[in-house]
Amino acid sequence: MQYAVPLVLLVITILAFFALGRGSYEQFGVSQVVLQVVVALPLVASGILLHFLKVGVSAGIIPPIFPARPFLVVLTGIFEILGAIGLFVPSMRRHAALWISIMMVAVFPANIYAAGQVVGGIRFPSVPVRVTMQIVYIALVLLAGYGAPRPAGRC
C-alpha cells in the first residue's frame, strides 16, 4: 500500500495529460524549447553524476527486493540521458517524453524506499513532497515533448 497510492497518482498524471489533449497538442515555440532544456538538464546531470559516477550510492536507494541494483542504476542512467537527447530530436520528441514519464513512475519505488533518509549526503524528501515533485516534473516533461493539450473544440 505504501507504494500503490503514489504510483497511482503518477499514472493518473500521465493519463490526465493525454485525456486533456485527446491527441491534439499545440507547440509553443521558444518557451517549449526552453522547457525542453529545463527538463533535460536534470536527466543528464542525474544520469552522469548519480547513475555513472556514484553507482554504489544510487544502488542503495533501490529496494532490496530488486535484483542487480547496480545494473539498474546504470541502465536507468542510460535511459535518462537518451530521453534527454530524444527531447531535442523532432521525430523522437513525443516518444522520449512518454518514456521519460513512464520511467519516472517505474523508478518511484526507489524514491519511496529512500524517503526521509540521507544517502550519499543527500536527504531524500518525504513521500508526499517527492510525489508532488514527480507529478510536476512528469507534467513538464509531457508539455516539453508534446506541447500544450489543445482544448476541446479548438482547431
Q: SSE layout and pairings?
A:
Elements: H1 4-21, E1 25-26, H2 29-50, H3 55-59, H4 69-86, H5 93-106, H6 108-114, E2 118-119, E3 122-123, H7 127-146, E4 148-149
Quaternary state, please? single chain
Structural class: mainly alpha
Mean pLDDT: 93
Order of helices and strands: HEHHHHHEEHE
- Residues in β-strands, percent: 5-15%
- Biggest sheet descriptor: 2 strands, antiparallel
Strand order of the largest sheet: 1-4
Residue stretches low in confidence (pLDDT < 50, at least 5 long) are none
DSSP summary: helix tally: 7
- Rg, rounded, reads 16 Å
* Apparent shape: globular
Strand tally is 4
> How many separate structural domains?
1
Share of helix among residues? Answer: 55-70%
N-to-C CA distance: 42 Å
3D structure, described in words:
The chain is mainly alpha-helical and 155 residues long. The chain is built from 7 helices and 4 strands. The strands form 2 sheets. It has a two-stranded antiparallel ribbon with strand order 1-4. A hairpin with a 2-residue loop joins strand 2 and strand 3. The termini are far apart.
Concise overview:
With 155 residues, the chain is mainly alpha-helical.
Defining key terms:
155 residues; mainly alpha; two-stranded antiparallel ribbon; 7 helices; 4 strands; 67% helix; 5% strand; globular
